UniProtKB/TrEMBL annotation:
Superkingdom in the source lineage: Bacteria
Organism of this sequence: Flavobacterium chungbukense
Protein's name according to its UniProt entry: GNAT family N-acetyltransferase
Domain (N-acetyltransferase): residue spans on this chain: 11-151
InterPro entries: Acyl_CoA_acyltransferase, GNAT_dom
Coiled-coil blocks: none
Length: 215
Protein backbone atom coordinates (compact mmCIF):
# COMPACT_ATOMS: atom_id res chain seq x y z
CA UNK A 1 0.00 0.00 0.00
CA UNK A 2 1.57 3.26 -1.18
CA UNK A 3 0.66 6.33 0.86
CA UNK A 4 1.86 9.83 0.02
CA UNK A 5 2.00 12.66 2.57
CA UNK A 6 1.88 16.10 0.99
CA UNK A 7 1.32 19.76 1.85
CA UNK A 8 -2.34 20.57 1.24
CA UNK A 9 -3.76 22.67 -1.56
CA UNK A 10 -7.21 23.71 -2.73
CA UNK A 11 -7.59 20.39 -4.56
CA UNK A 12 -7.88 18.74 -1.15
CA UNK A 13 -10.93 20.80 -0.07
CA UNK A 14 -13.18 17.86 -0.94
CA UNK A 15 -11.78 15.91 2.04
CA UNK A 16 -12.56 18.60 4.66
CA UNK A 17 -15.91 17.20 5.82
CA UNK A 18 -14.56 13.65 5.99
CA UNK A 19 -11.61 14.86 8.06
CA UNK A 20 -13.91 16.63 10.55
CA UNK A 21 -16.18 13.59 10.82
CA UNK A 22 -13.22 11.25 11.39
CA UNK A 23 -11.75 13.48 14.11
CA UNK A 24 -15.08 13.66 15.93
CA UNK A 25 -15.94 9.97 15.67
CA UNK A 26 -12.46 9.02 16.87
CA UNK A 27 -12.78 11.22 19.95
CA UNK A 28 -16.23 9.82 20.75
CA UNK A 29 -14.88 6.28 20.42
CA UNK A 30 -12.06 7.04 22.88
CA UNK A 31 -14.43 8.82 25.24
CA UNK A 32 -12.23 11.91 25.34
CA UNK A 33 -12.92 15.60 25.04
CA UNK A 34 -12.70 17.18 21.61
CA UNK A 35 -12.18 20.65 20.21
CA UNK A 36 -14.41 20.50 17.14
CA UNK A 37 -13.30 21.78 13.75
CA UNK A 38 -15.45 22.96 10.87
CA UNK A 39 -14.88 22.07 7.21
CA UNK A 40 -14.45 25.78 6.47
CA UNK A 41 -11.65 26.09 9.01
CA UNK A 42 -9.92 22.97 7.66
CA UNK A 43 -10.20 24.33 4.11
CA UNK A 44 -8.64 27.62 5.21
CA UNK A 45 -5.67 25.72 6.61
CA UNK A 46 -5.43 23.72 3.40
CA UNK A 47 -5.46 26.81 1.20
CA UNK A 48 -2.69 28.48 3.24
CA UNK A 49 -0.46 25.41 3.07
CA UNK A 50 -0.74 25.03 6.84
CA UNK A 51 -1.60 21.34 6.76
CA UNK A 52 -0.49 17.95 5.48
CA UNK A 53 -2.68 15.19 4.17
CA UNK A 54 -1.95 11.50 3.65
CA UNK A 55 -3.49 9.96 0.55
CA UNK A 56 -3.77 6.30 -0.41
CA UNK A 57 -4.70 5.90 -4.08
CA UNK A 58 -6.48 9.23 -3.97
CA UNK A 59 -8.41 8.44 -0.79
CA UNK A 60 -8.10 10.31 2.52
CA UNK A 61 -5.85 8.38 4.90
CA UNK A 62 -4.65 10.93 7.45
CA UNK A 63 -4.30 14.62 8.27
CA UNK A 64 -2.73 17.23 10.55
CA UNK A 65 -2.57 21.03 10.48
CA UNK A 66 -0.40 23.81 11.88
CA UNK A 67 -1.38 26.86 13.95
CA UNK A 68 0.92 29.69 14.99
CA UNK A 69 0.43 31.86 18.07
CA UNK A 70 1.89 35.06 19.52
CA UNK A 71 3.34 36.22 16.19
CA UNK A 72 5.03 32.91 15.49
CA UNK A 73 6.56 32.49 18.92
CA UNK A 74 4.61 29.25 19.40
CA UNK A 75 3.44 26.64 16.91
CA UNK A 76 0.95 23.86 17.54
CA UNK A 77 0.02 20.77 15.53
CA UNK A 78 -3.68 20.02 15.70
CA UNK A 79 -6.24 17.65 14.27
CA UNK A 80 -3.83 14.73 13.88
CA UNK A 81 -6.01 11.90 12.63
CA UNK A 82 -5.72 8.66 10.68
CA UNK A 83 -8.69 7.13 8.89
CA UNK A 84 -9.80 3.83 10.51
CA UNK A 85 -8.95 1.90 7.32
CA UNK A 86 -5.28 2.88 7.59
CA UNK A 87 -4.57 2.57 11.30
CA UNK A 88 -2.05 0.23 12.95
CA UNK A 89 0.54 0.92 10.24
CA UNK A 90 2.47 3.73 11.95
CA UNK A 91 0.89 6.37 9.72
CA UNK A 92 0.18 8.82 12.56
CA UNK A 93 3.88 8.92 13.42
CA UNK A 94 4.83 9.47 9.78
CA UNK A 95 2.37 12.35 9.41
CA UNK A 96 3.43 13.93 12.69
CA UNK A 97 7.12 13.65 11.77
CA UNK A 98 6.50 15.28 8.38
CA UNK A 99 4.50 18.13 9.94
CA UNK A 100 7.16 18.55 12.63
CA UNK A 101 9.98 18.92 10.06
CA UNK A 102 7.82 21.22 7.94
CA UNK A 103 7.14 23.42 10.99
CA UNK A 104 10.85 23.69 11.82
CA UNK A 105 11.50 25.02 8.32
CA UNK A 106 8.61 27.50 8.34
CA UNK A 107 9.02 28.62 11.95
CA UNK A 108 12.66 27.88 12.87
CA UNK A 109 12.59 29.91 16.10
CA UNK A 110 9.15 28.85 17.35
CA UNK A 111 8.49 26.58 20.28
CA UNK A 112 6.34 23.67 19.12
CA UNK A 113 3.71 22.52 21.58
CA UNK A 114 0.56 20.49 21.96
CA UNK A 115 -2.03 19.39 24.49
CA UNK A 116 -3.48 15.90 24.34
CA UNK A 117 -5.13 13.13 26.32
CA UNK A 118 -3.92 10.41 23.94
CA UNK A 119 -1.00 8.22 25.00
CA UNK A 120 -0.21 7.42 21.36
CA UNK A 121 0.28 11.12 20.57
CA UNK A 122 2.33 11.59 23.74
CA UNK A 123 4.61 8.77 22.63
CA UNK A 124 5.10 10.25 19.17
CA UNK A 125 5.78 13.70 20.62
CA UNK A 126 8.30 12.31 23.08
CA UNK A 127 10.17 10.51 20.32
CA UNK A 128 10.42 13.80 18.44
CA UNK A 129 11.96 15.53 21.46
CA UNK A 130 8.96 17.10 23.20
CA UNK A 131 8.84 17.12 26.98
CA UNK A 132 5.81 17.26 29.31
CA UNK A 133 5.37 20.78 30.73
CA UNK A 134 2.80 22.71 32.77
CA UNK A 135 0.37 24.85 30.79
CA UNK A 136 2.19 27.95 32.04
CA UNK A 137 5.00 27.19 29.55
CA UNK A 138 2.59 27.15 26.60
CA UNK A 139 1.10 30.05 24.69
CA UNK A 140 -0.94 32.61 26.61
CA UNK A 141 -2.86 33.59 23.48
CA UNK A 142 -6.56 33.51 24.47
CA UNK A 143 -7.48 32.48 20.91
CA UNK A 144 -5.75 29.15 21.40
CA UNK A 145 -7.60 28.34 24.61
CA UNK A 146 -10.87 29.56 23.10
CA UNK A 147 -10.47 26.70 20.64
CA UNK A 148 -11.18 24.33 23.53
CA UNK A 149 -14.72 25.66 24.02
CA UNK A 150 -16.32 22.73 22.22
CA UNK A 151 -14.38 20.21 24.32
CA UNK A 152 -16.39 18.49 27.04
CA UNK A 153 -13.62 19.31 29.52
CA UNK A 154 -13.69 23.06 28.86
CA UNK A 155 -15.41 23.86 32.21
CA UNK A 156 -12.47 22.21 33.97
CA UNK A 157 -10.00 24.32 31.97
CA UNK A 158 -11.96 27.47 32.81
CA UNK A 159 -12.10 26.65 36.50
CA UNK A 160 -8.29 26.35 36.48
CA UNK A 161 -7.83 29.62 34.55
CA UNK A 162 -6.22 27.77 31.61
CA UNK A 163 -3.49 26.44 33.89
CA UNK A 164 -4.58 22.78 34.07
CA UNK A 165 -6.96 20.29 32.50
CA UNK A 166 -7.18 16.58 31.71
CA UNK A 167 -4.85 17.14 28.74
CA UNK A 168 -1.08 16.94 29.12
CA UNK A 169 0.98 19.83 27.77
CA UNK A 170 4.08 18.95 25.73
CA UNK A 171 6.73 21.31 24.36
CA UNK A 172 9.65 21.21 21.93
CA UNK A 173 12.07 24.12 22.29
CA UNK A 174 14.47 24.40 19.30
CA UNK A 175 16.90 26.37 21.47
CA UNK A 176 17.48 23.35 23.68
CA UNK A 177 20.25 21.09 22.50
CA UNK A 178 18.55 17.94 21.28
CA UNK A 179 20.03 14.48 21.65
CA UNK A 180 19.43 11.16 19.93
CA UNK A 181 17.54 9.37 21.36
CA UNK A 182 15.36 12.24 22.71
CA UNK A 183 16.21 13.79 26.05
CA UNK A 184 12.79 12.87 27.38
CA UNK A 185 12.13 9.19 26.53
CA UNK A 186 8.47 8.24 26.65
CA UNK A 187 7.30 6.29 29.66
CA UNK A 188 3.75 5.16 28.95
CA UNK A 189 3.20 3.77 32.44
CA UNK A 190 4.20 7.05 34.11
CA UNK A 191 2.07 9.25 31.84
CA UNK A 192 -0.87 6.87 32.08
CA UNK A 193 -0.62 7.04 35.87
CA UNK A 194 -0.40 10.84 35.73
CA UNK A 195 -3.52 10.97 33.58
CA UNK A 196 -5.46 8.78 36.04
CA UNK A 197 -4.32 10.93 38.99
CA UNK A 198 -5.47 14.12 37.27
CA UNK A 199 -8.84 12.55 36.45
CA UNK A 200 -9.26 11.36 40.05
CA UNK A 201 -8.42 14.78 41.47
CA UNK A 202 -10.95 16.53 39.25
CA UNK A 203 -13.59 13.91 40.01
CA UNK A 204 -13.10 14.30 43.77
CA UNK A 205 -13.44 18.08 43.50
CA UNK A 206 -16.57 17.72 41.40
CA UNK A 207 -18.16 15.32 43.89
CA UNK A 208 -17.31 17.67 46.76
CA UNK A 209 -18.98 20.52 44.93
CA UNK A 210 -22.11 18.48 44.26
CA UNK A 211 -22.24 17.39 47.93
CA UNK A 212 -21.99 20.97 49.19
CA UNK A 213 -24.58 22.15 46.70
CA UNK A 214 -27.08 19.52 47.88
CA UNK A 215 -26.54 20.59 51.49
Amino acid sequence: MKISIVVTQEEHFKFAQEICDTIESSALLRGTGIAKRTPEYIQKKMANGDAMIALADGKFAGFCYIESWQHGKFVAHSGLIVHPDYRSHGLAKKIKSKVFDYSLKRFPDAKIFGITTGLAVMKINSELGYKPVPFSELTTDPSFWAGCKTCTNFPILQSKENKMCLCTGMLYDPKEKQKTPPRHPFNEAVLSRLKKIKQALFLNKLLSFVFLFKI
